[in-house]
Each structure stands twice: as C-alpha cells, then as structure tokens.
Amino acid sequence: MSKLKLQGATLRKLEGTLFITPWVVGFLAFVAFPLVFSLYMSFHRVKVTVNGIETIPNGVEYYREILFADGGLLYDDLIPFLREAAVMIPIILIFSLLIAILLNQQFWGRTFFRVVFFLPVIFSSGQIILEFIKQGEGTLSFVESLRIDSYIIEYVPKTWVEPINHVISSFVLVLWYSGVQILIFLAGRQTISSSVYEAARIDGADPWNTFWKITLPGLIPFIFLNLIFTVVDLFTFPTNPIISKVTTANYGLSSALAWIYFMIVLVFIGIVMLLYSRVDKAFSGKRS
C-alpha cells in the first residue's frame, strides 16, 4: 500500500513538473538573461556605441542617488501611488467577490453576464484604458451630481484626498482589473459543496450568516490568490509613475530604479502573505 502511495506521489510531482516546464523554459530563454543583465547594469555606467555596449563600474552610486541624493525620483510619485493602490485593491477584491457570488446564482442569462464581465480583460489593452481615462469616460456620473468630491475634501485627511479622487475619476479600471478575479472567485465558490449550504438552511441559517460562516472562510485561499494577482497587476500597469520613469536615457540609473521598485513590490507581497497567514489561522477553525 505504501509503495502505491509513493508511486502516486511521484506521479503527481511529475505532472506538476510538466505543467510548469513551459514557464521555466520561457523564463530561461527570454527573461533570465535580461533580468541578470539589468542587475549588472545597475552597478555600471552604460554607454551604447557603434562598437557595442561599454560599461564602467559605478558601484552603488545609482542606488544612493535614487534613495538619498534625489529622493524625489522615487518618493514623490511612489508614496501617492501606494496610497492609491491601498484604496484600489480592496475595492477590486470586494467588487469581484460580490459579482462572483451573484454570477454563481441560478438565473436566466447567467452565461451572458459572465462573458460580459470578462470581456474587458480580452479586448481592452492598457492603451485603450488610458484613452478612456483621458476622455473622462472612466468616471462615475453620480459623483459630480451628488458632489461627493467636496465631501471627500472636507472629511478625508488631505494625504488621502487625491488618491481617492483619482480612483473615482478612473473607476473604469475597477471593471478592467476585475475580470480575472471574478473568474477565480467564481471557481472558488464552486469548490464549496452545495450540501454544506443545504445543511445550513435546514439549521435555519439566513444568507447573511451563511456568507460569513461558510462562503467567506471557504474563499480565503482564493482571496489571497486574487490579492497577490491584483498587487502584481496594479504595480505593473502602464500608468504606474515608477515604470514611466524607466527610460533608455540612462540604462544604469533606470536599472537601479527598476530593481529598487522590484524590492518594494516584494516587500508589499511579503506583507500581504503575512496578513494572509494570520487571517487563515483565524478562519481555519471555521473551515474545519
């Protein structure tokens, strides 16, 4: 019996290896060398000449310049962007979760609405979304009529006014960002057995209690997955102010900025994983 279990475990490992092999091959073939070379350039002054690329050792000068000498290159745009991300990420997750729960219900035309919510992911490129925002098509019409922006200015701390107003003015991004998350939440909702909900109804649980005690604890791993996906997606969006500063005018400085930003994203993801581990422990008893 133990031999059969060992063979089954080996087979699963081989299956997993086969699934990730295309990604590993693609990473080694197209990403690994540029990634390592960009790290190398961040410690050198790079000159492109007719004879090729010339590099002059520069140590950590570029890192010192970005972090200390010219902090505005990083902090002036990064801090507001982090505030905006802190507002955008919960909105995207909550919106995706609610839409996924609605799309999981039995109603006429359910497949059509599932397609509608996923279509922006397929057809809308970053440039199209940028054009929508520039033309003012991403705003919510009721914001101006209800003068919500004036209430935000009056009651919200000044450091958060601009990020919140920017999220409201480009609310179309929420729909554009939510397609994949809705799909993941929908798949996660369908992993919860219907018999659990039937037992809850028999015991007299209402939909509100069912959501908090069955649906939400069962979706915790999928919330974590969507959180990581949203963070990475948001931090690599074309409107990202740090990415827009990476230019070919100075390869060494741009490479150093990219690596500093990469480490910031890793720290952000590490905080998310820490929060997830604590939330998962809190809900583990409810899922058992």
From TrEMBL:
Regions crossing the membrane: 20-41, 85-103, 115-133, 167-187, 219-237, 257-277
Q: Where does this one sit in the cell?
A: Cell membrane
Database matches in SUPFAM superfamilies: MetI-like
Mind telling me which Gene3D superfamilies this protein's record contains?
MetI-like
| Major localization listed first in the record, in broad terms | membrane
Membrane topology category: Multi-pass membrane protein
Per UniProt, which keywords does this protein have? Cell membrane, Membrane, Transmembrane, Transmembrane helix, Transport
- Domain (ABC transmembrane type-1): residue spans on this chain: 78-280
Regarding protein family, the annotation reads: Belongs to the binding-protein-dependent transport system permease family.
- Under what name is this protein listed? Sugar ABC transporter permease
Origin organism is Paenibacillus baimaensis
Q: What is the lineage of its organism?
A: Bacteria, Bacillati, Bacillota, Bacilli, Bacillales
